[in-house]
Amino acid sequence: MASNHSAAEERTKRHKVEGPQKHIIAFIFSILLTLVAFATVAAGEVNETFIYILIVGMAILQVFIQMSFWMHMKDRGHLFPIVGILFGVFVVLTMVVMALYWTWW
Predict the structure, then answer these.
(1) DSSP code for 67
(2) Which residues contact 67 (CB under 8 A, 6 or more apart)?
(3) Which of 17, 29, 54, 100 has its CA 20 to 30 A from that of 23?
């Protein structure tokens, strides 16, 4: 009985620590990244290469924010989904590299 009581307390502690503040901060940060991307493209006088690099970099940062805060990939016990996602990224990058190689060869 004592182990059930301590497990319930542990869950309560975890939920108190993981309040909505982190989600609100992540949401605001995601909105800011999106606004910066739109503003950069809307400026029009910025170098195209810089825009592409900036948008891809911000997209990667956005993915990490979404995965860690909204999908809780930062928590314990999410190794299998992380491995699956990394494998999917590996497959997609391999397909892109092979398509480029096949096209240019």
Answers:
(1) I
(2) 73, 85
(3) 54
